[in-house]
Amino acid sequence: MPDLEITAILEWLIQAFPEKRLPKNSYLVYLDELSDIPVMLLERAARQIIRNSTYFPRISELRQAADQIAGKTFNSPASSLGASYLNLEAQLLETDYFHQGEFNIKKWEKLADQLEQANRPHRAAEVREKARHILESEAAYQRGEDYPSVEARQHYANWDSTP
User: Fold this and answer.
1) 31 and 7 in contact (C-beta within 8 Å)?
2) Quick one: pLDDT band at residue 160, thresholds 50, 70, 90?
3) Of 87 and 11, which is predicted with more confidence?
4) pLDDT (0 to 100) of residue 99
5) Residue 76 DSSP symbol
6) Which residue, among 113, 83, 131, has the nearest Cα to 72 in the 3D structure?
7) DSSP letters along 29-67, please?
8) For 108-137, what is each residue's pLDDT tens digit?
9) Strand locations in 8-154, DSSP E?
10) CA angle at 35 for the pair 81 and 51, rounded to the nearest 5°
11) Residue 82: partners with Cβ closer than 8 Å, 6 or more residues away
12) How far apart are CA 87 and CA 70, in angstroms?
């Protein structure tokens, strides 16, 4: 599956730099050399390059951008990502939603899975809860309803936490 996601990122880069034609052999080298970088990180690196460069990136430039975003040299599998990187990724997903209106449930679920693999189950549950809240909010908006509902807001307003 990561090859398909990396392929999509490479196709996106090719569309962003239409003067570049990547021969099949080079394409396969890109796939192989970028396969150890988590897809979300590679996607962010590609976005950064598209915004800041006038030329199609070399593999080393994509890796360097990923290193810069992750805050370290990236040579480890996704299951061993540090908590600081995963927390940064959570923050970036929230920023994407609240500032740019971008929401992709698959990215949120993947991050939650990575947090669980990194032995951060409470943080994974928090990410899933935020994603659920966003989904419910978007669905209510599509139906023309308030979220949370008036009844829920009244319930919370009347809720007294003192014994």
Assistant:
1) yes
2) low
3) 11
4) 77
5) S
6) 83
7) HHHHHHTTS-HHHHHHHHHHHHHH-SSPPPHHHHHHHHH
8) 998 899 888 888 889 999 999 999 989 988
9) none
10) 85
11) 72, 118
12) 11
